[in-house]
Design brief:
The chain is built from 12 helices and 8 strands. By secondary structure, it is an alpha/beta fold. Keywords: Amino-acid biosynthesis, Cytoplasm, NADP, Oxidoreductase, Proline biosynthesis.
Length: 281
């Protein structure tokens, strides 16, 4: 750690997820000094405009030279190239490495960066952009308790976190929460289209659907009841909700979601370079 109990955090990549983490840390008043590296001056200009206290550079090696934590926020396709170029600089200081790239394993990151490093893999989701994210985290055995706490505090700045002892569980996290927002957006899209079919305007339909989704999620989050119990409480026998639920279940909704999540998990496994291991039923 740096002097005066401040932590030097370097972001490699200045995209949406990096910016959401920076915003969360600054809004939380975290005792950190932030450096951001990106080859795009346009991306760095966004950082400079919103958070002028951040140090910005196009030189990745310079950015990591004083880092306690390096957040790898680049696309999976270029992760190997970025890591290998940084390996000698990273090995000199051996900071905590945190990756938010889907499908890139801890062993790959360690190999590309020269090995023997403390690494935390994170699987966040897009609601982190509005500080309402859900992230799954995995730490290798070189991560100590202080580093684990640091990684958690970074991700908690944009939402909730869950730790997993088995890295392979991040495939399930990807299927459920990483890809999950898109499933809900699809449901909302279908509901809005149907609502417009009743004669509601686009804006009326959108507001009804979006606020209903928000309220249902908030109620589920704050209630001690299970989702199944909450559903039962709003489903009166012989009523309108029961008619809709019966139709959805008759259409095989539960099985469709089960197959969809398994397909997402399988794809995550394939993208990581491993053989598919989750059986479809």
């Amino acid at each position: 750690m740096t002097t005066e109990n401040r932590t030097n955090i370097t972001f490699i990549g200045a995209g949406n997820m990096a910016r959401s983490l920076i915003a969360g840390l600054i809004d939380d008043g975290a005792s950190v000094d932030i450096t951001v590296a990106d080859p795009s001056e346009e991306q760095l200009d966004i950082i400079r405009g919103q958070w002028p206290a951040c140090i910005t550079t196009t030189d990745n090696a310079q950015a990591v030279s004083q880092a306690d934590l390096v957040v790898l926020a680049v696309k999976p396709q270029i992760m190997q190239m970025v890591c290998e170029a940084l390996a000698s600089d990273i090995q000199e200081r051996k900071p905590l490495i945190m990756s938010i790239a889907a499908g890139v394993s801890e062993s790959s990151l360690n190999t590309w960066l020269g090995g023997l490093l403390p690494i935390v893999r994170c699987m966040p989701n897009t609601p982190a952009l509005v500080q309402s994210g859900m992230s799954g985290l995995y730490a290798n055995t070189r991560v100590d308790e202080e580093q684990r706490s640091l990684a958690e505090s970074v991700m908690r700045a944009v939402g909730m976190v869950l730790w997993f002892d088995d890295e392979d569980m991040l495939h399930a996290v990807t299927a459920v929460s990483g890809s999950g927002p898109a499933y809900f957006f699809l449901v909302m899209e279908a509901m809005q289209r149907s609502a417009e079919g009743f004669g509601l305007s686009e804006e009326e339909a959108r507001l009804l659907v979006v606020q209903t989704a928000f309220g249902a999620a908030k109620l589920a989050l704050e209630s001690n009841d299970s989702s199944a119990e909450l559903r039962k409480k709003v489903t009166s026998k012989g009523g309108t909700t029961e008619a809709a639920i019966n139709q959805l279940q008759a259409s095989g909704l539960e099985n469709t979601f089960d197959l969809a999540l398994k397909a997402a998990a399988q794809r995550s496994i394939v993208l990581s370079g491993n053989k598919p291991a989750i059986e479809k039923s």
